[in-house]
Write a structure and sequence with these properties.
Number of helices: 11
Distance between the termini: 26 Å
Helix content: 40-55%
Shape: elongated
Order of helices and strands: HEHHEEHHHEHEHEHHEH
Strand content: 15-25%
Largest sheet: 4 strands, mixed
Radius of gyration: 18 Å
Oligomer: single chain
Structural class: alpha+beta
Length: about 190
């Protein structure tokens, strides 16, 4: 399986990027980042400086602390979010447990779910899973993530046949899911929507 190490050579930079992109709602100060990444403070400061210079992070001084957060206007924001979503949290669990879960054709996180933004309506779907799925295995992974996040995850599971049928019939529920922003965890986005 491909990893961020294939592209980024600094392990400290990878840890910092994963920390920021796994929860976009958080702001971190240097010591908090050091604790979370378990890396040396000078290495963390060096990577923060590089990431800020590259336009990935912003910072702001508050009192005697310097806080950092992700710039959502960074040109490769979506790509980094997708990579980190596959490597951390529920995305990583789904990928590492693919054989237990069943035959996965597609796993898609809604953009709001990946960004940890609140759902506006109860009927909005956080995750779409298409394939021949062992529901108890998937449900167990989702329950663990729900306890970590402290909120319910709204997910939909369809067989490939049901998905193709609903897509062909232009089912409003499915079109509503596909019309929003998304992060692909398993499968090709082009094949999912075309």
């Amino acid at each position: 399986m491909a990893t961020l190490e294939d592209i980024i050579t600094s392990k400290v930079r990878i840890k910092v990027i994963e920390l920021f992109f796994s929860d976009l709602t958080e702001m971190y100060h240097v010591r908090g980042i050091v604790r979370a990444t378990k890396e040396e403070i000078n290495a963390v400061r060096r990577e923060l400086e590089r990431l800020e210079k590259a336009g990935i992070l912003k910072n702001e001084k508050r009192g005697n602390r310097l806080y950092y957060w992700v710039r959502d206007d960074y040109e490769f924001f979506g790509e980094l979010l997708a990579m980190v979503s596959k490597r951390t949290g529920l995305g990583a669990e789904i990928i590492s447990n693919k054989n237990k879960i069943g035959k996965l054709n597609y796993v898609m996180f809604s953009g709001k779910f990946a960004r940890r933004k609140e759902r506006k309506k109860e009927d909005e779907v956080d995750i779409l899973v298409v394939g021949d799925i062992v529901l108890p295995e998937l449900a167990n992974l989702i329950r663990v993530e729900e306890s970590k996040r402290g909120e319910e995850i709204n997910y939909t599971v369809m067989s490939r046949e049901e998905y193709d049928f609903r897509k062909k019939r232009r089912d409003p529920f499915l079109l509503g899911i596909l019309s929003g922003s998304r992060v692909m965890i398993v499968g090709d986005e082009e094949l999912l929507v075309s």
